[in-house]
Amino acid sequence: MADLKIIIGNKNYSTWSLRGWLAAMHTGLPVDEVKIDLYTPGSKAELLRHSPSGLVPALLHKDIVVWDSLAIIDYCARLAPGKFWWPEDNAAYAFARSIAAEMHSGFIALRTHAPMNIKAKWSSLTLGESVAHDVARIDTLWSEARERFGNDGDFLFGGFSAADMMFAPVVHRFETYGIDVSPTVRTYMDAMLAQPLMQQWAKEGRAETAVIAAGEVPKDATQLG
Ligand SMILES: N[C@@H](CCC(=O)N[C@@H](CS)C(=O)NCC(=O)O)C(=O)O
Fold first, then answer.
1. For residues 21 and 12, what is the distance between their CA atoms, to the nearest angstrom?
2. How far, in Å, CA of 78 to CA of 28, rounded?
């Protein structure tokens, strides 16, 4: 049994779980994984057995529990200080921390109307105004990060970092709904989709059979939002 255990939900759908799981795996330490099928009878009781908020992700480290994705990322950064989490440079750090926080608290329209569903593929949906606004803002943030701070690698701040973890589910959303992005963002998304931990999660998500209604866009939809 490993000292670290990450509690997650369905890999096809659970965006916050993806962020916490990436952080736990990025430590490079041995990690046990417990997956709970969300929104099923009994799942809330099962979540509460591990996570005081009744939500995933939760990270258990020996007898310590950390819940909420951003807290898990910061805790994992303490456990594995030799790995890249946040950029050193003050300007890059400020940008990285700000966009991670903006992701954690914002982009409600995109989160509401374009659920992560790794298995799904749409090509014909137009974007409602509020979703289009979120998409444009994210494109601007990713492009600026890549152009100003990303020279040392393929990710927002060069190497794969906490900021990429926070935006990982958005990459899947853009991919699933065939959302138009700038060339810089397309190149960044391709790097994210090829990242080994991202590939592992997506492969396991695609193999799942559970269907969560809230994670499905109606078949006759023409617009997101
Ligand atoms: N702010 C939390 C959000 C966690 C959250 O909403 N998790 C969802 C899954 S993506 C959940 O546990 N839902 C299960 C439920 O509500 O029963 C975080 O950043 O971790």
1. 13
2. 13
Question: How far apart are the C-alpha atoms of 110 and 99, rounded to whole Å?
Answer: 15
Report DSSP state, residue 218: -
Atom of ligand 1 nearest to the CA of 20: 20
68 lines ligand 1 (CB under 6 A): yes
Write down the pTM of the prediction: 0.98
Cα atoms in the 13 Å half-sphere on the side-chain side of 48: 4
User: Could you give the CA distance from residue 98 to residue 79 in angstroms, rounded to a whole number?
Assistant: 22
Residue whose C-alpha is closest to residue 60's, from 36, 33, 25, 38? 33
On whether the CB atoms of residues 113 and 131 are closer than 8 A, the answer is yes
3-state DSSP assignment of residue 64 = strand
The reply to whether CATH 3.40.30.10 applies to domain 4-79 is yes
As given in the structure block, the two tokens for residue 146 are 């890549």
Nearest ligand 1 atom to the CA of 17 is: 10
57 prior amide bond cis, ω within 30: yes
DSSP state of 9: -
Q: For the chain, give every domain's residue range.
A: 4-79, 90-206
Query: Residue 73 in 3-state DSSP?
Result: helix
Q: What is the pLDDT of residues 81-111, one digit of tens each?
A: 999 999 999 999 999 999 999 999 999 999 9
For the segment 130-168, what is each residue's pLDDT rounded down to a tens digit?
999 999 999 999 999 999 999 999 999 999 999 999 999
CATH level 2 (architecture), domain 90-206: Up-down Bundle (1.20)
